[in-house]
Design goal:
heterodimer, A: alpha+beta, Chloramphenicol Acetyltransferase, 2 domains, six-stranded mixed beta sheet, five-stranded antiparallel beta sheet, 7 helices, 21% helix, B: alpha/beta, Rossmann fold, five-stranded mixed beta sheet
Chain lengths: 418, 324
């Protein structure tokens, strides 16, 4: 049965003060009972029981400071016998942060547990001694310096060029307690011959950037379903005059215009500040033979529908011919990925770092919908899912952005004004 | 090619230029009848006479000023300072006049003068005779500074300096005067502002000038033999103009830099070069830029101590090893 340990209740918490026991030794414990009050560096929290049984041992006195992970009490199961127990682990060994599962902290001070505090304990924030040349080579190779931290062979352990030139590119997770990536690497499977396809540069970059994105960026997802009937009608009418715009062109311009209306989405997370951009440089995900590229339409919000259409066509053509220039990939502020043409109705995309949001656009599908007169009719629907960086935008901000986007897409003639 | 001394190489340069150009003349304390305090001008008074090789009183401010005036009027004076340490009484002439006239006259008046003499420590002649003012002079836009390390460079650089239309401060070294090296007969020039790679290497760049080049070469051989480290030795030859390109190319090859300098460290020539490299080649550096300079104190009179005050192969090697 569970040993109760001092939980880690905040990023920076290394120890907690056990203010008060709410139960005494020998008390029966029901799930949800308050066990104790703990003071952290930020707030006073209540500890709640997630197991029932008898509180058989209290290892610490009230007022004692206890390192995170040290045992503080023991709950004996109802059918177990009471025997003398002592703390089984070294009080100085903190457990993996996800294991304080028998208790859940509840903030007494409102909002205190979500204070943003600069963490000075993660690997990535430790100052790594590295020579300028080694830093440059690492950047060129896409090598994360954390992967060679502590392995420097220069004076004083400095990482020098020789340490990074041949270092393996396998990135490591930045948070502790996550499985090492080496454990998810494939090994040959007997009876199942395989072909090894060498990683292209593009594949390596995709792997590194998306792993970094999913590892470092706290993603959240919001989906909306748009009434696409006005878009369908609008496009038909617009193209009747000789234009050849696609639904995607309409979505792209609407995404850019909405980002001007709600600029908090058009931003990026910096170490000490959030960068909020004035122009929308729209990254467009384009599938190419060996992977995926995201070239940028600069000042997309200033363009007309035919201009957007021409820009996308040009980028897509040159992307497939590998004729895009490096600067055409840089400076994007928000990304659109559209898999509608592949018959995907709805999906979630991984943020294109360092941007704060990506929009995953599905196919326009006919489906039964309930109309204003509560009749079930055939409607046309388009699903769009926003993935947001929660460090930059919160749910409500992203929802406001999606509302602005919906308004534009459901009244697409608004896009005709500049 | 004849093997001659550094002293003789300079003497040949004067002889060539006195012969070639009537506007060239030598001037200084005991340069004529006594053949020069360090015999650099030996035989020239006899050969060219008192109008071309002129003894002066002990009055640096006066004859430096005389040189500036003569140069402004179109002559090409070569003014010897018995020691560059004595230039300090004539600094107004060097800095304010020789260094600034071209600028102050809107480019109308050049001062094609060479001011030359030994500028070195290491000979137990005391603090006031052992100054190395190359950094002080090079700090003045308008003045050029040359510090040859070998007989070959001394002759070629001297001829180029005499022909230069601006004032060149030519800093020699009493400890080098007796060194011999291969020097072509006749006239040749080495352009100012072109460094020379005295030894090719791959692992670290030693950047030096003057006598420190020889110390660096000695250290490089030991480093190769005992530690397997291949040092490239670059001789600046002229400090201003400075051949940045050769330095940066070497840094981009070796990624490590050790500056070796008999100048004092504080605001010294090596400090300037270190700053330049940090600015222009930061991303090429695999280790910090380090220096071995004269120890930061007045020149020590005690001979054994003064030897330690200046860069030695041992100091260079131990400093270089900290970069690997």
């Amino acid at each position: 049965m569970p040993e109760i340990t001092m939980p880690k209740l905040s990023d920076t918490m290394t120890e907690g003060t056990l203010l008060r026991w709410c139960k005494q030794k020998g008390d029966p414990i029901e799930i949800g009972d308050l066990l104790a009050e703990v003071e952290t560096d930020k707030a006073t929290m209540e500890m709640e029981a997630f197991e029932e049984g008898i509180l058989s041992e209290l290892f610490v006195e009230e007022g004692a400071k206890v390192p995170v992970g040290s045992p503080i009490a023991f709950i004996l199961g109802k059918n177990e016998t009471l025997t003398e127990r002592s703390p089984s682990t070294s009080p100085l060994t903190p457990p993996p942060s996800s294991t304080s599962n028998s208790l859940t902290p509840q903030a007494i001070t409102p909002g205190s547990s979500r204070q943003a505090v600069p963490s000075n304990t993660t690997i990535s924030s430790i100052r790594i001694k590295v020579s300028p040349l080694a830093r440059k080579i690492a950047a060129e190779r896409g090598l994360r310096l954390e992967t060679v931290a502590g392995k420097g062979t220069g004076p004083g352990g400095r990482i020098i060029a020789a340490d990074v030139i041949h270092a393996p590119l396998t990135p490591i997770p930045t948070s502790t307690g996550t499985a090492s990536s080496s454990s998810i690497l494939p090994t040959p499977i007997s009876g199942n011959p395989h072909t090894e396809i060498p990683l292209t540069n593009m594949r390596q970059i995709i792997a590194q950037r998306l792993l970094a994105s999913k590892t470092d960026i706290p993603h959240f997802y919001l989906s909306i379903e748009i009434d696409a009937a006005p878009m369908v009608a609008f496009r038909k009418e617009f193209n009747a005059t000789g234009n050849k715009i696609t639904f995607n062109d309409i979505v792209l311009l609407a995404v850019a215009r909405a980002a001007i209306e709600k600029p908090k989405i058009n931003a990026a997370f910096g170490t000490t500040s959030i960068f909020q951009y004035e122009s929308v440089n729209l990254s467009v995900a384009i599938a190419v033979e060996e992977g995926l590229v995201t070239p940028v339409i600069r000042d997309a919000h200033l363009k007309s529908l035919p201009e957007i259409s021409a820009a996308v066509k040009d980028l897509a053509t040159r992307a497939r011919e590998k004729k895009l220039k490096p600067e055409e990939f840089s400076g994007g502020t928000i990304t659109v990925s559209n898999l509608g043409a592949y018959g995907i109705n709805q999906f979630c995309a991984i943020i294109n770092p360092p941007q704060a949001a990506i929009l995953a656009v599905g196919a326009i599908v006919k489906k039964p919908v309930v109309d204003a007169q509560d009749q079930i009719v055939i409607g046309q629907r388009l699903s769009i899912t926003l993935s947001g960086d929660h460090r930059v935008v919160d749910g409500a901000v992203a929802a406001e952005y999606l509302a602005a986007l919906r308004l534009l897409l459901e009244s697409p003639s608004r896009l005709l004004t500049v | 090619m004849p093997l001659i001394t550094y002293r003789k190489a300079l003497n040949e340069a004067f002889s060539e230029e006195l012969t070639r150009d009537d506007s060239v003349f030598l001037m200084g304390e005991e340069v004529a009848e006594y053949n020069g305090a360090y015999k650099v001008t030996e035989g020239l008074w006899e050969r060219f006479g008192s109008k071309r090789v002129i003894d002066t009183p002990i009055s640096e401010a006066a004859f430096l000023g005389l040189g500036v005036g003569a140069a402004m009027m179109g002559l090409r004076p070569v003014v010897e300072l018995m020691f560059w340490s004595f230039a300090y009484v004539g600094f107004d002439q060097i800095i304010n006049n020789a260094g600034c006239v071209r600028y102050m006259s809107g480019g109308l008046i050049n001062v094609p003068m060479v001011i030359r003499g030994p500028a070195n420590g290491g000979t137990s002649v005391g603090a006031t005779h052992s100054h190395t003012p190359e950094n002080l002079i090079a700090n003045t836009p308008g003045l050029k500074v040359v510090c040859p390390a070998t007989p070959y460079d001394a002759k070629g650089l001297m001829i180029a300096s005499i022909r230069d239309n601006d004032t060149v401060c030519f800093m020699e070294n009493t400890l080098l005067y007796g060194n011999t090296g291969e020097v072509p007969e006749g006239s040749y020039t080495i352009p100012l502002g072109v460094a020379d790679i005295k030894r090719l290497g791959t692992d670290i760049s030693f950047i030096a000038y003057g006598r420190a080049v020889l110390t660096a070469l000695e250290a490089a051989e030991i480093l190769q033999a005992e530690h397997g480290i291949s040092a490239e030795v670059i001789d600046l030859r002229s400090i201003r103009p400075l051949d940045e390109e050769t330095l940066l190319t070497s840094v981009a090859k070796t990624h490590r830099v050790l500056l070796i300098d008999e100048n004092k460290p504080f605001c010294g020539v090596s400090a300037q070069i270190a700053a330049m490299i940090a600015e222009k080649a930061f991303d090429e550096l695999d280790a910090p830029i380090l220096r071995v300079t004269a120890l930061d104190a007045p020149a020590i009179y005690s001979m054994p101590l003064e030897k330690l005050q200046l860069p030695t192969p041992e100091r260079i090697i131990s400093k270089a090893l900290t970069l690997f």
